Amino acid sequence: MEDALGVALQAVGEKWAFLVVREVGLGVRRFDELQAVTGAPRAVLTDRLGRLVGTGILETRAYRQPGQRARQEYALTDAGIDLLPVLAALSDWGSLHLPAGAVREVDYRHLGCGGRVTARLVCECGEPVGSHDRLIAQINR
Amino acid sequence: MEDALGVALQAVGEKWAFLVVREVGLGVRRFDELQAVTGAPRAVLTDRLGRLVGTGILETRAYRQPGQRARQEYALTDAGIDLLPVLAALSDWGSLHLPAGAVREVDYRHLGCGGRVTARLVCECGEPVGSHDRLIAQINR
DNA sequence: CGGTATCCTATAAGATACTG
DNA sequence: CAGTATCTTATAGGATACCG
Predict the structure, then answer these.
(1) Which of A32, A122, A121, A101 is closest to B87 using CA atoms?
(2) In this model, does residue B14 exceed pLDDT 80?
(3) DSSP character for B88?
(4) Closest protein residue to D5 (Cα–C1')
(5) A:B CB pairs within 8 Å
(6) What are φ and ψ of residue A67, in 5° steps?
(7) Which nucleotides in chain C lie closer than 7 A to a protein CB?
(8) How far apart are CA B46 and CA B36, in angstroms?
(9) Could you tell me the pTM of the whole model?
(10) Pick from A2, A31, A1, A11: which is nearest to A86 by CA?
(11) What whole-number distance in Å separates Cα of residue A66 and Cα of residue A21?
(12) Which of A30, B41, B66, B108 has its CA 20 to 30 Å from the CA of residue A58?
């Protein structure tokens, strides 16, 4: 059996899958909009959307705005929402450690207080875990 | 220009790259050991190790234990160490949201207090950010 | 022990055009 | 709009063997 990290990478480990989840989380919900903002080829986007729905990260919803025809939109499920911290953590890492100038900065902010949101390791005892604290993992091989 | 998430995914977005970083972080430092625990094909492992060194996530170090011949080992750089929260966050997500029984559980624990370590989103104002708090991202498109 | 060298397959990505 | 269809290329992954 593979471990959680390996399987999670299979589920969302591709470039476009992660980017699609981010954009849907930010409110981009329709096919052509997603295609425009991500730049993914349409066939790839179709495939990723289908897979993300299949793994329970996205769901499709029909909706109709007053006076307009019925449309369909993609939305994050709870599992998808829980993926956002992972995105924020990876994006932060990229901003901090990849060569400056090679990437655009992306800030994640908390709607309401407006503060910048970052990912941190915390111990269940309540202590924050510093970068150089050693971790041990218990894996059943 | 691509954004930080896209570039970060290019750097570590492959299955074996992430798994190698985890294992090195847990103390597995030599080629054959890494090959054994990850199961990666040797040619792939060679490639990933080289790329991870090239992007500054791993470094090689020569060392010699008393009475033994010189060896080489891989170690995490500071950038590599900062990747551990991302791994923990993704692994946690997999344990929580992927079908039970499909994955092995992996616990990350804090050496010293022994408590379970998880990744959390925190706001710079000091407040923890809940799963359903809405985030906004500022991206320069 | 720490890789290289081949070879092969599977999948992701990219481009472009078409359809209900 | 929201996809399908088709085709091509690039890259990842897997198996196996060999080498200093």
Answers:
(1) A121
(2) no
(3) H
(4) A43
(5) 269
(6) 80, 0
(7) 1-7, 12-17
(8) 13
(9) 0.85
(10) A11
(11) 28
(12) B108
Match 């998808």 to its residue by tokens: A80
Q: Which residue of A has its CA nearest to B101?
A: A1
DSSP, residue by residue, A64-81: --TTS--EEEEEE-HHHH
Token representation of residue B60: 């090689």
User: Residue A102 — very low, low, confident or very high, per pLDDT cuts 50/70/90?
Assistant: low
Look at residue A74 and give its three-state secondary structure.
Answer: strand
For residue B133, how many C-alpha atoms fall within 13 Å in the half-sphere facing its CB? 19
Statement: residue A100 has pLDDT above 70: no
Task: Find out whether A31 and A43 touch, Cβ atoms under 8 Å.
Answer: no
Mean pLDDT within A100-112: 72
Q: Which residue has the tokens 């309540």?
A: A126
Single out the residue of B92, B49, B17 nearest to residue A3, CA to CA.
Answer: B92
Q: In chain A, which residue's Cα lies nearest the Cα of B100?
A: A4
